[in-house]
Each structure stands twice: as C-alpha cells, then as structure tokens.
C-alpha cells in the first residue's frame, strides 16, 4: 500500500511557497486537512462496522477507546451547533441551502433532512437541484413528496432550534463525499450525496421514492464537474 511520505509533503509545500513563514502557514493548513482526512477515514469504517452489526463496545475496542468515547465521537446528536462539520468550505450556494432549511423548519421542533432537501431544491441553480431534476421519475415529484412530509409537522419551534441527528450526519457525510471526490469545496451536489448516503432520514426516503439513487447521482455530478473543467481554463465549473 502506498503511504504518504513526509519528504513528499515537504517538497509539495516548498515548491508552492517561497518564504519560510508562507511555508509554515501552508504546512499548518495541510496538517489540518490531513487530520480531517484521517477522521473521515475512520468514520467511514466505523459506519461500515455498524452496518455489519458490530457493537459500540467492539468498535471502541478496535480503535482503543471505551464504548462511551466511541459513541460520543461518532454518533451525531441533535444540536444547533454546526462546528462539526464546519461550514467553512461550503460554497455560497451550499450555505444558502442550510439557511433555507432553517426557514422551512420554522414550524418544526428540529431541522431535519427533509428541510435540507427542500432548501437544496429551492437553490435551483445549484448542481444538487439540477441533479435531482435530471434523475427524478418525473418533473417536480421530489418537491411534491417533500411537501407531504412537511405537512405532517405541527411542533413548536424551540430556541435554539437543533439540527436533527440525521441532518448532522448528512452534513458530515457531505464533507466526506467532497473529500472522497478530491474536491476542495462542499457544494450543493455534495449535500445531495450526503443526504443520499445518510440513508435513514426523511430526505433519503423521499429521494428513493422518486427514483433519485446515490450511484446515479454521483455519476451525474462527476460528469458535470468534469465537463465544466474540460471546457477550458476560462470556464468556471458550475459546481454549487
């Protein structure tokens, strides 16, 4: 297995920056990104182990921590705090999706994946919405199915209003999808892939019912971004 060598990282930083302080700043940034990759690598296989039936006690033993520590690190909990995952890498469109989700959840006890998906569809110029439009069984069926979900809500909005555990997981997976595809940004397309990868929330159920599948969505997203890049250096990729 090919491993990242320290020498390679040093050369990479040194060739891209001239002054020692610029190199130090770049090294700190690179170290942070490597830490993030490591966290998502472990998280991917924790999710895989859970799907295979492994207990939290077994997972904790495998990574050298207690059951409680493993759950605290890897089980999303309802919270209004989005420090993890961070929105720093989100595009403007992706941030608007999160803001729109909060708007759609104004009559709900929490911000769910259904609200994130509705916000994604409202940001219709983004690649996420365009992917849904391309893959859904017929035009508008996803929005209609979401409206049915939203009609079920009658809760009183708390302050602060939490993101549901499913939403927090989907947002975490959006970052992981971007890292997996070697993209330096998190756009609406990654939010869509995160909602599909999460699998258990209302958004995933709605998307499944309207024929939007994860593999097909990823193929379309990758093809669209590749096509935009191939149109030339003057062309701005229509990621979002």
UniProtKB/TrEMBL annotation:
The keyword Lyase does not apply. Keywords: Repeat. Residues 87-228 form the Clp R domain. Signal peptide: none annotated. InterPro entries: Clp_N_dom_sf, Clp_R_N, CLPT1/2. PANTHER family: ATP-DEPENDENT CLP PROTEASE ATP-BINDING SUBUNIT CLPT1, CHLOROPLASTIC (PTHR47016), CLP DOMAIN SUPERFAMILY PROTEIN (PTHR47016:SF5). This is Clp domain protein. It comes from Actinosynnema mirum (strain ATCC 29888 / DSM 43827 / JCM 3225 / NBRC 14064 / NCIMB 13271 / NRRL B-12336 / IMRU 3971 / 101).
């Amino acid at each position: 297995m090919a491993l990242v060598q320290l020498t390679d990282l040093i050369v990479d930083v040194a060739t891209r920056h001239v002054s020692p302080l610029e190199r130090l700043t770049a090294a700190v940034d690179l170290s942070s990104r490597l830490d993030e990759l490591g966290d998502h690598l472990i998280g991917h296989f924790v999710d895989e182990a859970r799907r295979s039936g492994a207990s939290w006690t077994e997972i904790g033993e495998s990574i050298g921590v207690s059951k409680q520590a493993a759950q605290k690190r890897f089980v999303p909990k309802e919270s209004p705090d989005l420090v993890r995952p961070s929105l720093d890498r989100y595009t403007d469109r992706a941030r608007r999706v999160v803001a729109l989700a909060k708007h759609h959840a104004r009559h709900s006890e929490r911000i769910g994946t259904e609200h994130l998906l509705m916000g994604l569809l409202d940001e219709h110029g983004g690649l996420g919405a365009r992917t849904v439009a391309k893959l859904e069984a017929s035009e508008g069926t996803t929005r209609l199915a979401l409206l049915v979900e939203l009609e079920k809500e009658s809760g009183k909005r708390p302050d602060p209003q939490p993101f549901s555990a499913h939403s927090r997981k989907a947002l975490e997976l959006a970052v992981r999808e971007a890292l997996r595809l070697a993209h330096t940004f998190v756009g609406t397309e990654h939010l869509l892939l995160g909602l599909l990868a999460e699998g258990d929330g209302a958004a995933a159920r709605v998307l499944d019912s309207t024929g939007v599948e994860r593999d097909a969505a990823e193929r379309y997203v990758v093809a669209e971004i590749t096509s935009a890049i191939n149109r030339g250096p003057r062309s701005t990729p229509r990621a979002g």
